[in-house]
Amino acid sequence: MTDCRGMASVPMAFEQKVSMAQQQQSMAHVPDRETLRKGKVSPTILKPYIDPTLCSSDPNAFESEVTVGRMFDARVHLGHKVGTLNDNMKWALYGERLGICVFDLEITRHYLLKALEFVRSVAFLGGRFLFVSTNKSSMLMVETMADKLGQYAHTRHWQPGTFTNTKSVFGGPIRLPDTVILLNTLTSAMEAHPALVDSAKMCIPTVAIVDSNSEPNYVCYPIPGNDDSVESVNFFMEMFAKAIQKGRAESDTFLEGAKEKKQQQKRTMGQRRH
């Protein structure tokens, strides 16, 4: 009969050996297990290990673009009737006027800046975006803007399983988007857009405009604001486009610098050999 205590000691001893080997071979820029464990509670601990370009991003990159005045002119502050208010959207409201919910544009600005910084980071890393909209008045504009950016748009009926059952829908595996940007989160039947559900199942981060009648808890980066007005949607699309373009430009600059640095190292090595 085998001793259970002996069986338990074998994997424990093996784990200790592996841990010691990892500690000996680990480099200074690689976080150890303890750092990763603490990082779950305090993400700032992992900052030294994140790409320096992302760490040194300018927090004021979009400050001049996203102003309360511009958002007011774009009718971002206008919500739906008070009777349709979702309780989970009360935090984003300034009040109501003539029975219409009015968003606090300072809150909208704060969340929009966070979302734009995330979009910029994804674009810097070469991520792909899918713009989703069911608003007929802005469908063409969304598709045109996505095409100019070299990204993708879905403005028609969302077929169930678009993300979760690609073999049946597309006939084979495809590359899923790295981020889904929804210009509205409700269908014509006032139900949560199925793209939100599919994205959650596939762990795809979402950025979305959430109106006063929307459910923000489904979205990774909710942006409280008007999702019906053409002016409002156009403003948000313009901001998303600038964030993507900025991320791409930073990525190109970073890659060019890395390429030049590599070539310089090769020249230096060649000179040393001679």
UniProtKB/TrEMBL annotation:
Disordered: region residues: 253-274
Biased composition regions of type Basic and acidic residues, renumbered to the chain: 253-263
Gene3D superfamilies recorded: Glucose-6-phosphate isomerase like protein, domain 1
Superkingdom field: Eukaryota
Pfam families: Ribosomal_S2
UniProt record similarity statement: Belongs to the universal ribosomal protein uS2 family.
HAMAP family given in the database record: Ribosomal_uS2_B
Official protein name in the record: 28S ribosomal protein S2, mitochondrial
